[in-house]
């Protein structure tokens, strides 16, 4: 029980740090009246969206909880865990967003003083979110453990928590992603492309919707996403505990008993929280204000956190008397995560050749730029795939499939600080928009732009982590599903494995269907953004046409911002349902129709294909974005040139890929895997109609 | 032996039909002097390219043959089969292209008379190619059978033929694909986009290269591609003969003895040739010249061929005293192929909603059009995947894995006529270009445009067949590989299957790597087109800049066409090497490094992911192309409007996707699978370093 108390204490500590950071942010200057006015409009829009989204989610959660409760072999305890997981995830997103919509105006005000002060406020705003995600996650799991650990079906109840978190995450990520990218695209196409007015121009009716989108998509959506990754990786490892007690592959015990196998992931995660806290406090710069120093400060924080995590993980393994092989598995996950982050940076930053090539191809127009960027995205799958494959094989060799699962935790353990460096970007982006609309001096905008650009670099690294860990976690969940199924069906695991040949046509059919599903999911989410942005575009055009003096910038003439926000909210919430529900229903259909074996093949196919598509979409989008930014620094004629116009097309194509479809895939593959795990006992009773 | 003689006779018959068609084409009017002059330039360029490509291929073939000869467990007989396969494939491409470069001018001349006459000449030109591919294929295999059938390693030698054909195909498809799309893109970007001159304008220095590309890419490249599909599907079924003699899954004999299991695929293919001949002669129209009648004529041909094939297949099964289950497997393949073709048509023709939606999205610019089209491509994977999955499960249920293989033959059996309806498109396209450059009356160009557009519809259907059958054939080859491996390693098949669990980390590692490879292949081929077109663009721009009076259209001033053709040839041949060699080397590396089990996972992953990417790329490209054509009919402002400019961007992005990367993936997945089959005996001796 001591390890669970340590975990809970680390969670409480994390919340205290979050509170400290929040207090720091809230006591900062709120800026001029104009700044507050704009920021208030953003806040209202964001709160309204989250309110409507959560109302839908409550209905969904209640319906699913009832289904879980009444289906034989599942039951009400699972439903309780499910509701608790959904609530925790919602809470993390709620807190993160409520701080973010207050941090943006304060960052804008702070950036008037210095770049350094701007970084401090926005980073601390992001840190609230990062610490909340990990602390609520570990506290939730600790509570669950304390309440249910003596229940005989403990290992079947705890996945409910992950299922709840994943369900909220998929809707939040997809809904927020549709909102943010539809508003962004709509604002850009009518503003920048058609009317030739600058970004974030107050005459553009979609501009407030765009800022709202940053908060509901990149903050609340991402929060739910990372919360899910975090708890799912811990749950997957716990449910594989049986394997660690005696590994038939290695022929030895990895841990002395099953509770130890449950404590270990909690302790490693707790270590990651402590390491993240240390890392966050190491992010400080002197009065130097150049970019290099800022980036170094952030990297010092994340790298130190990684090293501390490694040390604390070793201590956890040592004190729990676990096999040293487990430590190697954690370490390989941690190292692979860092390297995947670096490779993402290589393929998307304009300091390296791939993105510079894309910028160069803008000279021959939008079409060649699209092709080059898309090819770059496809090519960028090589390092992450090879690193994940190495991590799987090494972790397996040292600690069986338990090792594969705990390698995923290793990769995610520094999430507290990773998320902080990730979440401050949208805060800075928002602050920049507020600055632009408030007629503050241009050097203030330059500072917020610098912060935003730095945020893009850290966000790229963060995305690498998120995808890599999603792959490992989903695989671990898949293995847990097989274990849970064999237990419930009273089959020996060895027998199931002997009958699960890759070459079985049912397995192959499952793999084919699984490889297809992420492609369909991407098509649906891309179309959702397209449809939503189409209605935004028409609304912004209508306002330019019908509101006299708006385009000319007459004194006192303002667009109707709230109309656009409302259109976006309604459309995004409507459009998020289909891809979300498809994700939830598909594994159930495959399992019931083609049976548990085909479902395993389905998951492997979906995980591999989802991984590839997520990396391709994120990195293609990221590199188009940065190719545009590189041209905006003056390359190939700079802003307004034909090269720039081509780059804007690339950026617009990439936006929904990198911020809606791509990151949602991370959630999708884990959600489908955890559903398989949850319904395993049902499949054991009804093993496939066909 | 009688069945093999029947097969050989059907091959000879096919060649006679091809000869008859060729004689018909060659005796047509060659057109005006200007027509002949242009057509001669195209012919020279195409012949020069093919010559250089084949010289490189000879070196490659010799090197690989020596390697096959000296490696223990492979040997010189395999090398002979390999050389024979490579030669046969090259021959089919050579004949097809030599007729095509003669048919284009004659089609141009015939279109001066009537649409109907234009169709007749171009369709018969295409039919030469179609009949040559299937006839040479079945004759080659018959010869191989007669020479080697008494050799104890017959089943290990015959895959060499497929390996040879596949190797030539990958280089021909990739090299030709790079050539055609780089020239097309280069010509379009400088001509249509930058200078605003019409398509196929004689002032454009890349215009002849563009026509050459149609011949080397869409004719010779496609010929090699389909030849490979055809022979690989037969070989895969033959090597699975052992399973048909006694199916452990069904617990019964499917055929009385092994030779029958070899005869059956040959006979089904022979039936397909006879059915195709009947179908080709059914493609006749009266003097009616509307499009509907022409399309109906083509469809009457293909549908009748499918029905005759079904009847002849039934007779083959009946007379060889094989199990009726095999007939159901053939039939399900045939039906699935037809339905996949129809679904491709639905997603890419502008008579249906998906393409109309893409055209609509052009109103908000190039970016939204790209997103909508790409989403459409992703969504279009659903029907083919579900149909292939159904075909796999049904065929397996009725005739074990032998059924899966022979379903692939069923799908491909009408290739003779499918290829004819496919290959006439580029001939008509070329003829249209020649008409444009020869100042013939506009109604002639309208007729060739109508033929071209009809060709796009049939090509879409053909692509569906090609992809569907590639998936089934590659799977059959994978199963053959496993069979060959277990035989060579003297392991019981059942033992191998029991140890090939989908959940084995080596299998999962293989699947991840396999899913990645097609993405990398696409990235390489897209980049290759990008690089090559970049040099074309610079050359065309240079000529416009440096040749005085060229852009103004002064009398007697001509661009240097041959310079552009040479640049394109050199670049395409250089760029085809890397993706081709990567495809050949990858399965060897995975097999040697990670072992035979990981290789099986690798192939399953690559087949599934290659299938998805091929469908996505082909259909996204096809729908962009047709969305542009729809706008050109006058929708959304027609030619020259902003909507049209957006559609041109989409078409340019789609070109290398649908004509270089997409179709090459079909070859890639079969080539990797057949390599695994060829090296199986080697892997049995050195089973994995790691």
Word description of this protein:
The structure is a homodimer of 690-residue chains. Chain A has 690 residues and is mainly alpha-helical. The first copy, chain A, has one domain. Helices cover 84% and strands 0% of the residues of chain A. Chain A is built from 19 helices and no strands. In chain A, helix 3 crosses helix 14. Chain A is globular and about 75 Å long. The mean pLDDT of chain A is 90. The interface between A and B is large, with 80 and 80 residues.
Structural class of chain A: mainly alpha
Strand segment count of chain A: 0
- Give the overall form of chain A: globular
Number of continuous helical runs of chain A: 19
Radius of gyration of chain A: 24 Å
Give a short overview:
Two copies of one chain form a homodimer. Chain A has helices spanning 2-26, 33-70, 76-113, 115-148, 154-195, 207-239, 241-245, 258-282, 291-319, 324-348, 353-361, 366-379, 382-412, 415-437, 442-489, 493-498, 505-546, 561-632, 642-685.
Main attributes?
690 residues; globular; mainly alpha; 84% helix; 19 helices; homodimer
Topology:
The structure is a homodimer of 690-residue chains.
Chain A: H1 2-26, H2 33-70, H3 76-113, H4 115-148, H5 154-195, H6 207-239, H7 241-245, H8 258-282, H9 291-319, H10 324-348, H11 353-361, H12 366-379, H13 382-412, H14 415-437, H15 442-489, H16 493-498, H17 505-546, H18 561-632, H19 642-685
Helix pairs in contact in A: 1-4, 1-8, 2-3, 2-6, 2-18, 3-4, 3-5, 3-6, 3-14, 3-15, 4-5, 4-6, 4-8, 4-14, 5-6, 5-17, 5-18, 5-19, 6-8, 6-13, 6-14, 6-15, 6-18, 6-19, 8-9, 8-13, 8-14, 9-10, 9-15, 10-13, 10-15, 11-12, 11-18, 12-18, 12-19, 13-15, 14-15, 15-18, 15-19, 17-18, ...
């Amino acid at each position: 029980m001591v390890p669970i108390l340590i975990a809970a204490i680390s969670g409480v500590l994390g919340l205290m740090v979050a509170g400290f950071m929040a207090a720091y942010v809230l006591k900062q200057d709120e800026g001029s009246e104009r700044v507050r006015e704009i920021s208030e409009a953003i806040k209202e829009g964001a709160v309204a969206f989250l309110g409507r989204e959560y109302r839908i989610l409550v209905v969904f959660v209640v319906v699913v909880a009832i289904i879980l409760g009444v289906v034989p072999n599942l039951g009400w305890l699972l439903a309780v865990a499910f509701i608790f997981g959904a609530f925790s995830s919602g809470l993390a997103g709620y807190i993160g967003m409520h701080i973010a919509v207050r941090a943006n105006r304060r960052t804008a005000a702070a950036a008037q003083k210095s770049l350094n002060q701007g970084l401090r406020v926005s980073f601390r705003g992001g840190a609230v979110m990062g610490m909340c995600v990990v602390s609520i996650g570990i506290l939730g799991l600790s509570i669950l453990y304390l309440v249910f650990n003596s229940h005989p079906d403990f290992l079947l109840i705890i996945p409910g928590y992950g299922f709840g978190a994943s369900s909220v995450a998929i809707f939040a990520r997809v809904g927020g992603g549709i909102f943010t990218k539809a508003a962004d695209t709509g604002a850009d196409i009518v503003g920048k492309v058609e009317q030739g007015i600058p970004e974030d121009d107050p005459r553009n009716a979609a501009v407030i919707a765009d800022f709202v989108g940053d908060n509901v998509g990149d903050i609340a959506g991402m929060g739910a996403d990372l919360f899910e990754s975090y708890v799912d990786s811990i749950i997957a490892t716990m449910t594989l505990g049986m394997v660690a007690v005696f590994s038939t592959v290695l022929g030895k015990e990895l841990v002395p008993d099953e509770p130890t196998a449950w404590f270990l992931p909690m302790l490693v995660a707790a270590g990651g929280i402590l390491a993240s806290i240390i890392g966050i406090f190491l992010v400080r710069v002197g009065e130097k204000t150049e970019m290099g120093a800022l980036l170094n400060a952030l990297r010092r924080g994340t790298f130190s956190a990684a090293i501390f995590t490694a040390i604390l993980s070793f201590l956890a393994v040592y004190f729990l008397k676990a096999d040293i092989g487990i430590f190697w598995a954690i370490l390989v996950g941690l190292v692979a995560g860092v390297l995947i982050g670096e490779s993402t940076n290589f393929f998307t930053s304009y300091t390296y050749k791939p993105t510079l090539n894309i910028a160069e191809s803008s000279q021959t127009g939008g079409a060649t730029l699209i092709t080059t960027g898309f090819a770059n995205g496809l090519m960028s799958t090589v390092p992450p795939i090879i690193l994940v494959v190495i991590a799987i094989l090494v972790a397996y060799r040292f600690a069986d499939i338990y090792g594969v699962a705990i390698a995923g935790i290793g990769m995610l353990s520094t999430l507290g600080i990773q998320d902080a460096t990730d979440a401050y970007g949208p805060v800075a982006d928002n602050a920049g928009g507020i600055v632009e609309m408030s007629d503050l001096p241009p050097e203030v905008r330059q500072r917020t732009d610098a912060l935003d650009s730095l945020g893009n670099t850290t966000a790229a690294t963060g995305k690498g982590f998120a995808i890599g860990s999603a792959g490992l976690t989903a695989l671990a969940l898949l293995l847990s599903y097989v274990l849970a199924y064999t237990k419930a069906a009273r089959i020996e695991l060895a027998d199931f494995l002997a009958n699960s040949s890759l070459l079985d046509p049912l397995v192959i059919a499952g793999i084919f269907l699984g490889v297809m599903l992420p492609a369909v999911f991407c098509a649906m989410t891309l179309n959702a953004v397209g449809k939503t942005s189409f209605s935004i575009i028409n609304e912004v055009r209508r306002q330019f046409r019908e509101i006299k003096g708006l385009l000319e910038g007459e004194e006192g003439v303002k667009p109707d911002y709230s109309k656009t926000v409302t259109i976006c909210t309604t459309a995004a919430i409507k459009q998020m349902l289909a891809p979300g529900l498809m994700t939830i229903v598909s594994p159930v259909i495959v399992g019931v129709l083609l049976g548990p074996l085909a479902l395993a093949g389905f998951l492997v196919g979906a995980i591999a294909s989802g991984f590839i598509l997520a990396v391709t979409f994120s990195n293609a989008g990221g590199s188009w974005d940065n190719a545009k930014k590189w041209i905006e620094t003056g390359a190939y004629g700079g802003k307004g040139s034909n090269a720039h116009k081509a780059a804007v097309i690339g950026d617009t194509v990439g936006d929904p890929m990198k911020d809606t479809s791509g990151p949602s895939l991370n959630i999708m593959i884990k959600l489908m895997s955890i559903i398989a795990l949850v319904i395993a006992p049902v499949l054991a009773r009804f093993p496939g109609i066909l």
